[in-house]
Write a structure and sequence with these properties.
Two copies of one chain form a homodimer. In chain A, the strands form three sheets. The first copy, chain A, has a six-stranded parallel beta sheet, with helices on both faces. In chain A, strands 7-6-8-9 form a four-stranded parallel beta sheet, sandwiched between helices. Chain A has a two-stranded antiparallel sheet with strand order 10-12. The first copy, chain A, has 330 residues and is α/β, with parallel strands linked by helices. Chain A starts with a helix and ends in a 9-residue tail after the last strand. Chain A has twelve helices and twelve strands. Chain A has three domains: 45 residues, lambda repressor-like DNA-binding domains (434 Repressor (Amino-terminal Domain)); 132 residues, Rossmann fold, CATH 3.40.50.2300; 131 residues, Rossmann fold, CATH 3.40.50. The first copy, chain A, is elongated. Chains A and B meet through helix 4, helix 5, strand 2 and helix 6 of A and helix 4, helix 5, strand 2 and helix 6 of B. Strand 2 of chain A pairs antiparallel with strand 2 of chain B. The structure holds a DNA duplex (16 and 16 nucleotides).
Chain lengths: 330, 330
DNA sequence: CTGTTAGCGCTTTCAA
DNA sequence: TTGAAAGCGCTAACAG
């Protein structure tokens, strides 16, 4: 590997001069600059990133930590982060927290290989984030609330989303509304369920636990939950699936049993994944502002990096997207 | 920031001892190790990744460079890379080549911030890769063929895919088969088109240039191409869209004009994107082995990193996926 | 088993 | 405008 030393030697200047020239500092004469660049080119010199980072104590890059790099779910979020990063002249790398303590994510968090990070990965514990955060290493935590210095959390208002979904069904005249939940201990699920209950209560509708079925946030789980609902007789007139994946499974189960959506039963999901638009019938759902979330996260991170003050908690609203899977109860 | 020096001082040992202890080297006594860890914990010590990389000349991480980090298209590819990386105990970061010469990707390529890289981004030129590649920095180039030391290319057999698609249509009895192409200069498009022509020739079917329409690889382009085909009268009985996105646009155009797929016209795509399964009718297409491509790329990269020999060129086969959008010509 | 020390490749202060 | 030299935080060779 050729180093800056080699370049300096070939150009017949001092290392410092070579460094100044290569980095475009003003104080170097045209002549010298040219010589240095020539030498660099001849040797196919490529700077060693670590060495310069080590010295300058800044990498001009941030990391986006996701629990699954390959999830299409993150697409818009990434887009938001990317756009804002680009505007700010920062570099962005994405890494996965797959593998827990041995994951790339944890390595990046603990070894400060970047200037700051945005974390959207539930398999990383709060403690670890608290430990990793530092004045010179701010962290933006998505979809969790965490109170600590140098950490800002951004959450989607899941409670409001749950409320919105349920209210939509109620306003269509539905009085018997089932809730297919995600893993019961999940933060997201708990809040969506709270919103569901609040809407019921506000409209004086009773909550029936037999209509609260667990679906594990998976397509399969939603399928099974719908099957269970059907086998219970006394089918509700509407079902709120706590995410779209489960709703997809539910749609399939209803179709298999000859129950027509939305004629016989209304279905609403949560997330607005890409597929929601393409199912038959297309899926009414609650849209999470994912792009905005990513953009906001990046924006705040860059403020922090500039030493500016910010709130340490943000909440984003959801939006009801009405498609074909819900209709007025006749 | 607390450094290893601070830890050593607090523990009352030398830096080297602290380093050995922290890195789990054998030669340190239990007692000393304990002292060091205690001190590290008390100071919330976190190692500086660059410094150690600089010294050890290895990062144990590779980069996956994509032209668009947020594209759902890459999902399976990433999965393949990730799985194999995990098995090999390497870290993986993904970065985008968006922004050309100022992109994160180029920074990582030129500044050797990782041990090696897999590139799937057409906006990075061959020259740059050739320049960046080095014995200690192997590069795997996907979907392009490039001949240079320390670079291995992996391609999907686009020609064979084009042939397969066309042959499928021919075998269903179609004699009038249009080709909706991507940008005409694209490597991918050229090869798919070649395959199309080979299949025609092999079955003694004439090639008609009026049935070769450009669609730019976009949904919109496919839509327009289909419209054009329709307005030309003399509609072919089958259309091969050089990718699924265009086929989606085509499907919409046909539906709008009351032309039924596959009754009136057969449609085949290329890629097997996730949506292909969900359109009405679902889309017959050519699947690219994306997971395999990612896994193979990573596998080869790790071989190279271990100093083993490999081929410098690999070609992967495609597969015909028959769904509803093609049928026997009656 | 532990300590001393050189040095990875770079940036930047200071002096010329 | 240029050069000499210090030192970022760490690892590892070597000596004890």
């Amino acid at each position: 590997m050729t180093t800056i030393k080699d370049v300096a030697k070939l150009a017949g200047v001092a290392v410092s001069t070579a460094s100044y020239a290569l980095n475009g500092k003003q104080k170097i004469s045209e002549e010298t600059r040219r010589k240095v660049f020539e030498a660099a080119k001849k040797l196919n010199y490529q700077k060693n990133g670590f060495a310069s980072d080590l010295k300058s104590k800044s990498t001009k890059t941030i990391a986006l930590i996701l629990s699954d790099l390959s999830g299409p779910y993150y697409s818009q979020l990434i887009q938001g982060v990317q756009d804002v990063s680009y505007e700010n002249g920062y570099n962005l790398v994405a890494c996965s927290s797959f593998g827990g303590y041995n994951s790339t994510a944890v390595k990046f968090l603990m070894e400060k290989r970047v200037d700051g990070t945005i974390v959207f990965a539930h398999n990383i514990e709060n403690d670890l984030l608290v430990q990793a955060a530092h004045e010179s290493f701010p962290i933006i935590a998505l979809d969790r609330s965490i109170e600590s210095d140098h950490i800002v959390s951004i959450e989607v208002d899941n409670e409001q989303g749950g409320y919105l979904a349920t209210k939509h069904l109620v306003e269509l005249g539905h009085k018997h509304i089932a809730y297919v939940s995600g893993p019961v201990t999940t933060h997201d699920n708990i809040l969506r369920f709270k919103g569901y209950q609040r809407a019921l209560k506000e409209h004086n509708l009773p909550y029936k636990s037999k209509w609260n079925i667990s679906g594990n946030f998976t397509r399969e789980g939603g399928y099974n939950a719908a099957k269970l609902l059907i086998s219970q007789k006394d089918l509700p007139s509407a079902v709120f699936f706590a995410n779209d994946e489960m709703a997809l499974g539910g749609l399939r189960a209803f179709k298999e049993k000859g129950i027509e959506v939305p004629k016989d039963i209304s279905v609403i999901g949560f997330d607005d994944i890409q597929l929601a638009e393409y199912t038959r019938p297309s899926l009414t759902t609650i849209r999470q502002p994912k792009y905005e979330m990513g953009a906001l996260a990046a924006h705040i991170l860059y403020q922090l990096l500039k030493g500016e003050e910010t709130e340490n908690f943000y909440k984003l609203s959801t939006e009801l997207i009405i498609r074909e899977s819900t209709k007025i109860l006749t």
